[in-house]
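Illustration: isochorismate synthase.
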Amino acid sequence: MPVSPSPTFDLSAQHQFRQQLVAGLTQARNQGCLFLSISRDLPPIDPLLALAGLSDCGMDPQADYFYLEQPGTGMAIAALGALRTYTAEGCQRFQDVRHFCQTTFAQIFCLDGGHPRIFCHFTFHDRPTGHQGTSASRAILPQWQIHQRDQQVQLTLNCDVLLEPGEIDRLCGQWQRIWEHLQTLPPTFDIESVMVPTISLPNLTVQHQGFVRGVHTALKVLQTGEMEKLVLACAADITAPRPFSWEATLQNLRHHYPNCYLFSVRCDGGSTFVGASPERLVSLEQGVLTADALAGSSPRGGDRHQDQALTTALYHSEKDRHEHQVIVQFLSHTLKNLGLLIPPPGEPQVLKLANIQHLQTLIRATPHPAVHLLDILAALHPTPAVAGYPRAIAYEWMRQLETFERGMYAAPLGWVDCNGEGEFIVGIRSALLQGTMARLYAGAGIVRGSDPEREWQEVLLKLQALVSAIA
Ligand SMILES: C=C(O[C@@H]1C=C(C(=O)O)C=C[C@H]1O)C(=O)O
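Result:
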């Protein structure tokens, strides 16, 4: 990906932007590139607010978008519009997406420290059936991107190098409108304008019975020793009097779950997928590769004393420690088999969220230049945290015992950049919103010693957290 030295134009002025765009397009064409990427530093803004308002800047309200934020660390990425899209399905889908990303990055000419990213989302199964129109894998080079890290915010525009003069005018006008929009944003979301959630869970008798039946079957299989863990999930459908808003839902979630990864993406069927996941699958940033082992759960206590008692019980629970260890071992072995160096993982920590707490171990590894992040994804997904172990057997049982299609639930979602760095999270604690309808997902890991009713309570806790945030 060729990169030009940084010019000193002030991109906020439209005529200067035009000059730089035209010069950049020529340079990009001369280098044989197909795309140009221009970036500009922005003053601190709220990236969610920025994305939510971009549709007022002449963007198609149905345009593709992607949002990922971890409020606690100040990381946020928002992308809008699709310049190039790729879809794939089948067992080679991660490798196919890697090939698309590498080819696309090689065709981008980056002006002025530009840092384009490709956003990717996947479904849980590599050939989903009967799902809501979402491709098994989708990778998008966006038109617009806002990236925030350590208080630094950057706006990036990606465009085709073969723009007609009329299209250049249109793009300059759009840049100007977006620039003005970002300048006039209030510093934070106007909480008054956020729709207050008023929905409650529907009657879940059928799900409850089906789930408990599934757990009993799983326990019998676990007893034979043929399987060590199975993750069973369920879906709850909700209808609201007015259409759901992913922006309002995210705003509610970011208040309750600042330590989680908040995400939302438009699916290719027109629905939106939204959630607050505590689980990173894998990230590679500044040369450090990290994968999260997250499993073993307990509710939070009503007061400090009770909460501490629950934390201690979780930490020392043989059943939860075993459930957790299955994942630590799986991640460590899989990364080692890919040729990565891994220091021995430490003892688990307890990750406390608003309503639930989990055992968590961060697995660090030294990346290998020949192993792309998407190859790591291919090897890791689905981990025993969301499928079970051994994977093939867990898969069979999951398909038999779950009566709904997982879609994007529990599947990877994230981004990669031209240096091969990126971050993927696991799309749990999530919902699919389509107009006035929402489908909420939640699951729990079953191991020997699991109690069916307690596991159902865990699922219910996760569903309740979601239902109290969707708006
Ligand atoms: C499957 C889910 O969560 C997973 C299951 C957990 C458990 O059973 O303890 C904990 C975290 C996640 O790995 C979900 O939230 O839907």
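Reading the tokens back as a structure: The first strand starts at residue 35 and ends at 42.
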